[in-house]
């Protein structure tokens, strides 16, 4: 499998151009294992208050619905590895 940049996953998807989504994809792209929403907040240097964690979870869930991120176990998110 090849390591791809976040832009490789979002090319042609106008709803993923927001910097918040790009930052989440960048964090998930560097993770060696799945991450929880709280871990995403900590990696982005966002205080892990419940409202921030829920906001991050909502964004990651949107990426799951778009087929860019996978939720292998409940609450554990990882970038889908594209095969070339």
Describe this structure in words.
- With 84 residues, the chain is mainly alpha-helical.
- The protein has one domain (6-79): Arc Repressor Mutant, subunit A (Orthogonal Bundle), CATH 1.10.10.10.
- The chain is 48% helix and 11% strand.
- The chain contains four helices and two strands, in the order ααααββ.
- The protein has helices at 6-10, 19-30, 37-43, 50-65, and strands at residues 69-73, 76-79.
- It has a two-stranded antiparallel ribbon with strand order 1-2.
- β1 (69-73) and β2 (76-79) form a beta hairpin.
- α3 (37-43) crosses α4 (50-65).
- The longest helix is centred in the last third of the chain and has 16 residues, at 50-65.
- It is globular.
- The N and C termini lie close together (7 Å).
Per CATH, which architecture? Orthogonal Bundle
Radius of gyration: 12 Å
Judging from the principal axes of the Cα atoms, what is the shape? globular
Strand content is 5-15%
Tally of structural domains: 1
Q: Indicate the structural class.
A: mainly alpha
Q: What spatial order of strands do you see in the largest sheet?
A: 1-2
Question: Roughly how many Å apart are the termini?
Answer: 7 Å
Number of strands: 2
Number of helices: 4
CATH H level, superfamily name: Winged helix-like DNA-binding domain superfamily/Winged helix DNA-binding domain
Keywords:
84 residues; Arc Repressor Mutant, subunit A; 4 helices; 2 strands; globular
Outline the fold blueprint:
Layout: H1 6-10, H2 19-30, H3 37-43, H4 50-65, E1 69-73, E2 76-79
Antiparallel strand pairs: 1-2
């Amino acid at each position: 499998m090849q390591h791809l940049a976040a832009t490789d996953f979002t090319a042609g998807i106008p709803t993923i151009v927001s910097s918040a989504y790009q930052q989440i994809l960048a964090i998930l792209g560097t993770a060696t294992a799945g991450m929880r929403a709280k871990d995403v907040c900590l990696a982005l240097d966002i205080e892990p208050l419940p409202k921030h964690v829920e906001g991050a979870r909502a964004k990651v869930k949107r990426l799951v619905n778009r087929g860019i991120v996978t939720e292998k176990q409940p609450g554990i998110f990882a970038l889908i590895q594209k095969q070339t």
